[in-house]
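RECORD TYPE: inverse folding
INPUT: structure tokens
STRUCTURE:
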């Protein structure tokens, strides 16, 4: 269709599906029932569990422990502060080493390796940060 054949009163064709976008937005809002505080508690607990189970860990190990997490805006970026809280609480420390991320969304980028300071301790002896 040439430019002369287009009707200026008719909207341009689009590949964007507005109904699908609305449906996904509503679905995301329904999944994001956790608030920021609850999300932090969820992350803190997962870090504590992984630190008790592994000598060394990365955020990929914590994501693996979490499984499916609600898709909150900024949910992934909240992991950094959670790891920092765990360091301050004495659960983990930096090793100075890096590994390639195993998560496809990270495209094999380098991520930090942490050493557990609570490896092998019973659950009731480790208090999650926060």
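DESIGNED SEQUENCE:
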């Amino acid at each position: 269709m040439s430019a002369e054949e287009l009707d200026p009163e008719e909207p341009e064709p689009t590949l964007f599906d507005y109904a699908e976008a609305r449906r996904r937005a509503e679905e995301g809002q329904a999944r994001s029932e956790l608030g920021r505080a609850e999300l932090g508690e969820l992350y803190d607990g997962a870090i504590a569990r992984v630190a008790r189970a592994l000598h060394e860990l990365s955020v990929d190990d914590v994501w693996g422990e979490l499984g499916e997490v609600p898709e909150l805006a900024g949910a992934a970026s909240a992991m950094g502060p959670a790891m920092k809280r765990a360091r301050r609480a004495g659960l983990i420390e930096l090793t100075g080493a890096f590994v390639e991320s195993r998560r496809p969304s990270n495209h094999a980028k380098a991520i930090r390796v942490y050493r557990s300071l609570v490896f092998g301790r019973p659950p009731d002896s480790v208090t999650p940060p926060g």
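NOTES: The longest strand covers residues 92-100.
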